[in-house]
Design goal:
It is a single chain. The protein has one domain: Roll (Nuclear Transport Factor 2, Chain: A). 32% of the residues lie in helices and 40% in strands. It has three helices and six strands, in the order ααββαββββ. Strands 2-1-6-5-4-3 form a six-stranded mixed beta sheet, covered by helices on one side. It starts with a helix and ends in a 9-residue tail after the last strand.
Length: 142
């Protein structure tokens, strides 16, 4: 049986790994490196239907479907930077509050938007991800 300290240490390792993965995902997104993001997805990853801005009208299941959605969003939006304000990790789940600054590739219009992102991990990979944007981002500068 593991001691309380050993259990705490195992939890801290998992927590550090999750935090590192989340930070890396947003770095990849800001660098336009969608393919590296996809490497962090579990084969059975789920992206629930989560709002108007992603164009996802039904849950996306599996690495191929979720990768297609990420690629499509990356072709429409250029994320210049994501500033992580708060990251809360509880076991295999994490919630992130962040502000993204970017531009629409089709119009060149810039945006700044707050997001709440929910993650669930298994074996260091994302098995569920959902993202909710502040609708005020539609008010972008010309």
């Amino acid at each position: 049986m593991l001691s309380e300290k050993a259990l705490r240490d195992i939890g801290n390792i998992d927590r550090k790994q999750i935090e590192s993965r989340i930070r890396r995902l947003f770095e990849c997104w800001s660098q336009g490196d969608v393919e590296s993001m996809i490497e962090y997805l579990a084969p059975d990853v789920i992206l629930p239907s989560n709002g108007f801005w992603t164009g996802v009208k039904a849950p996306r299941v599996g690495r191929a479907q979720v990768a297609d959605t990420i690629r499509r969003n990356g072709s429409v939006l250029e994320n210049i930077v994501s500033v992580l304000h708060e990251l809360v990790i509880d076991g295999d789940r994490a919630v992130v509050h962040r502000t993204a600054v970017g531009r629409r590739r089709d119009t060149g219009r810039r945006y700044q938007c707050d997001f709440i992102d929910f993650f669930r991990f298994r074996d260091g990979l994302v098995v569920e991800f959902s993202e909710y944007a502040d609708a005020a981002w539609m008010e972008v500068e010309p």
